[in-house]
Prior knowledge:
The chain is an alpha+beta fold and about 475 residues long. The chain folds into 3 domains: about 1-100, no CATH class; about 135-275 and about 285-375, no CATH class; about 375-480, no CATH class. The chain is about 50% helix and about 10% strand. The chain has 20 helices and 5 strands. A 5-stranded antiparallel sheet has the order 3-2-1-4-5. Helix 5 (about 80-95) runs antiparallel to helix 6 (about 105-115), helix 7 packs parallel to helix 17 (about 320-340) and helix 12 packs antiparallel against helix 13 (about 250-255). It is globular, with a radius of gyration of 25 Å. The N and C termini lie far apart (about 55 Å). Keywords: Membrane, Transmembrane, Transmembrane helix. It comes from Hymenobacter edaphi. Its main location: membrane. This is HTTM-like domain-containing protein. It is found in: Endomembrane system.
Amino acid sequence: MALMRMAVAAVLLLDLGIRSTDLEAHYTNLGVLPLYVLFERAWNPYEFSLHTMSGLWAAQAALFLLAAAAAVGLLLGWRTRLMTVLSWVLLVSVQNRNPMIVQGGDDLLRMLLFWAIFLPWGRVWAKDAQARPAPAHYRYFSAATAAYVVQIALVYVCTALLKSGPEWRSEGTAIYYALSLDQVLMPGGRLLYPHYELLKVLTHLTFYTELLLPVLLFIPVATPLWRTVFVLVIWGFHLGISLTLFVGLFFLISAASVLGLLPTPVLNGLERRLGPPVQRGAGHLGRWRQRLPRWQWPLTLELRAHWQPQVHRHFRLLPALRDTVLLVLLGYTIWWNLDGIARPGYTMREPLRWFGYVFRTDQHWGMFAPTVFKDDGWYILEGQTKDGRRLDLNRGGQPVTYRKPYSVVALHKNDRWRKYSENYLFVSNDWMRPYYCHYLLRRWRENPRNPPLRQLDVVYMKEVSLPRYRVQGPTREVLCSCQP
């Protein structure tokens, strides 16, 4: 759990770093989603967001700095529970501020922090542990750990059950269609794409891996072995996805999420190999280790059977009630996940959803489900200058060309913009279009070296993927036009 805490904190810092490069664009009133538009078009009245207190850049920067400070505190294990709560609140807040750039990895990161509020993941390898004796035993079981394990299982089982299209269940063409999407195609995907029969095998392997692999988490015999297998397969699975498809931080979030499942024998073995005892005069690294007396080196990782963590007094009150509440929350989470999978009579009715919306335990693991998009293409931000030239703002103002670029994914600054461009396409989100168009015009005018534009067209060059490497298109679609 300590490893997972540090990994999650590192991911939070990386996520904040990436988001901060688009602070104005995604979180202020000068960007693509001003506050009044958010409240009018994309807001759930049960949600909360500290980031909606102001549309000014300075206010957003202050909240980002606060979130970074909380993540550093979590990484060091300083006031761990408080830093966990603060990190969770600020993560929910920033996700609610702009839901048009949120993807599945964000849901997983949010749920990890939610369950971790009730986990003792600051008991070792933490600043908090320095003032406390090393625990005699390290195996820990509670309603919170059960919720954590079940949550990991739900991610994979639900995404498999939601994959109901024939491309997954019978035809075996889902990965072929996924790699046909140039918007997310990575170099590894280019290598696999020509091998049609191999892609069919990988499709079925992916589906049954997601569906059956979580069973390993609940086998009561040889538990360390099965959990080690689960962690290694998940790491390899997501590494393969990240090499073939552009999924942002999903790979790192998923890798961090299963660190808490690593069993004691594996960690003890790593400790013996990677953590030799510090000798006197061992140089700067040795002196650094010696300044962490309660963290100890080799770092103690073994978890044994009857240890009960020492926690703050208010968390010792009515532990049975606390565990009962957690089990109810776990049942609520499982029920939420059944929505869309079970028959309509068993789904959750809207009046019961308020808790999920308020605390953002709502989740949907429909990655490439129920089927894979067939519509593909790329954007051309076609600006018309006053002297008649046509420039592509998506390529730094170069002359417009309708030729397909070699790497479509390279047109996106990061995965947040890729997700935004995906949502931008949907007819139900057509309200987004003029705000993005006018944002681009304003940014273009801010550079005095850019020639004045009399019109900007957001153009989508649409291709439709067909079986056996056939493609329909491209066709030029103007999604939005705006003038200065």
